[in-house]
Amino acid sequence: METSSAWGDKVGPPSLRRPPPEKKKKGFPPLLIPIGAGLVVVALVAVALVLLSGGGDDKADQSNTPSTPVGTPTAPKSSYQPPSNAIAVGFGVSLVPVAGWSLVTQETQGKQVATYAPDGQPRGFFWVRQKEKVTAQAYLLGIVEGETEEEVAQLGNVRNLPCPKDVLVECVAIDYTSTAKDKTGADVNVKGTVEVYRRKDGVVTALDYRTRVDFAQKADADAAIMKKSVIDSM
């Protein structure tokens, strides 16, 4: 006869047989107990002596000296000597303006130079600014977003640039075109490029260049010269 268990399995009825008596374990003679305890004590003492003596190693104990803290990497000193007309930006970086580009004195973040048409309308600007504790790509995206915030813009893809100097560890760029408004409210076609370079010491330098499309041929050539002066000073 079988009964069902609570789990639904078929099990046999409880056995009525008395379980066989347990076999008694062999005890140690009373004389051996103190001897065994004595051996344990001797073993513990031996282990303690080994630990105190350095495990029997013939080599002298070498204390763990604290590791030298890794400091913030510093950029190697540059042998570049800027010309007398260079504009200091910060952290050893400078900008040499091309003839026809003048310093925008009211700019407080970094240094900006601009070029103007005979009627006083701006035709292009070249802006160098810096930041720390940020990646080059994050800085780039923040800049281009601010430049095109109120414009109809088409952004290119962020691209990695080959870093032109060993001191640079991250170099990125983006191009864009947009439609802006001039002082009269008329639409103006604009093109721009933002390049950002991060040095080993964590200083990030952005080159923000922007010009009217109808002045781009001259402005592009000037911007290339000014860009080289900035990179040479990094």
Q: What sort of overall outline do the alpha carbons produce when their principal axes are compared? A: globular
Main beta sheet: strand number and arrangement?
8 strands, antiparallel
Kindly report the oligomeric state of this protein.
Answer: single chain
**Helix content percent band:** 10-25%
Residue windows where pLDDT falls under 50 for at least 5 positions: 1-71
What class, by secondary structure content? alpha+beta
Total number of beta strands: 12
Radius of gyration over C-alpha positions, nearest whole angstrom: 39 Å
Termini separation:
94 Å
Which whole number gives the mean pLDDT? 78
CATH class annotation of the domain at 87-232: Alpha Beta
Strand portion: 25-35%
Give me the number of helical elements. Answer: 3
The CATH homologous superfamily of the domain at 87-232 is termed: Mog1/PsbP, alpha/beta/alpha sandwich
CATH topology of the domain at 87-232: Protein Transport Mog1p, Chain A
CATH-derived architecture of the domain at 87-232: 3-Layer(aba) Sandwich
Order of SSEs, N→C? EEHEEEEEHEEEEEH
Written description of the protein model:
The chain is of the alpha+beta class and 234 residues long. The protein has a domain at 87-232: 3-Layer(aba) Sandwich (Protein Transport Mog1p, Chain A), CATH 3.40.1000. The protein has three helices and twelve strands; from the N terminus they run ββαβββββαβββββα. The strands form three sheets. Strands 5, 6, 7, 8, 9, 10, 11 and 12 form an eight-stranded antiparallel beta sheet that branches. The chain is globular, with a radius of gyration of 39 Å. The model is unreliable at 1-71 (pLDDT under 50). The chain crosses the membrane at residues 31-52, 86-104. Residues 62-81 have a biased composition (Polar residues). Keywords: Membrane, Transmembrane, Transmembrane helix. Residues 1-25, 56-81 are annotated as: Disordered.
